[in-house]
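Lab notebook, bench 4. Still working through the backlog of constructs that have no structural model yet. Next entry is a single chain of 293 residues. Request: give me the structure tokens for it.
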Amino acid sequence: MKLNIILKRSVYLMFIIATLGSLTCCQPDTIGEGNGLTDSNVDATFTFTPVAEKTNTYKLMAQTQSVILSKWDTGDGLYIGKMNEEISLPDAGTYQIRHVAVGRGGSENTTIKEIIVATSDPLKGNLVQGGNFANATDHAKWKVMNLSPSGAAKWTFKTGSAIINSNGGWSQEAIYQAIDVVKDKEYKIDMLVSSQNGSDETWFEVYAGTTVPESGVEYKDNRVMGLSTWDGCAKAAFSGKLSMVGCVKNQIGSISNVVKFSQTGKIYLVFRSGGNIFTSSGITIAKVEFRGV
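Model written out:
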């Protein structure tokens, strides 16, 4: 009797194992091979409409069926956003808006649409001249402030960017330009910054002061933001808006890219960078902005 029960149990167990094996064989090992977990046709389409009573502001609306995540690129790089995203395009121009829809299993599809902005926002227009570093005309808007006699640190202008390189040894160099501001009006400063490698004992700082820059004199008037290995950023490769990847506090001890001034007149936007063990790939900046809030 006991032997009969044991034999029956063995048969049942073998049947279960065989059934499970059959089910497993029916499931592909690779995502996207028909296992039902991946949607290869995720719909990335979206619409855009101007936002009433807001200048050069648009609402991006992605279709939501089978979409679990939306990524957007409005010209400054891809970021994770909402499926209904509000964006501001203060400068006149043509913008390629890219939407990446993420579906089940991590599959992605992309849709690109064009938004044409006819007129710049008079309140939020970019006050920086040559901030895109597009050509020699843009490059000429910036002045170089030599700070190290060795010349080991040097800014170089390229098409679409400017880059600071240094052989280290605490050498540094700055670039700057003058900007006219209005008393008590708030302004926001930002730019794209990147480096393929990290540094040690290195800084990149942004100033907006009334002191006239002078070669050979380290600029220290009204620090606004920046990167600093002492404060915990730029130790490894980085890329993004300085307001997001930076870690340097302003003159009043907070992290913010908003500034205002006690007098109407001219201020100087200064980028000063250097260090002891500087990244071999340099620090690159692009799309510099100084806008009214």
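Notes after review: The CA atoms of residues 249 and 255 lie 5 Å apart. The chain has two domains: 46-117, 136-292. Flag for follow-up if needed.
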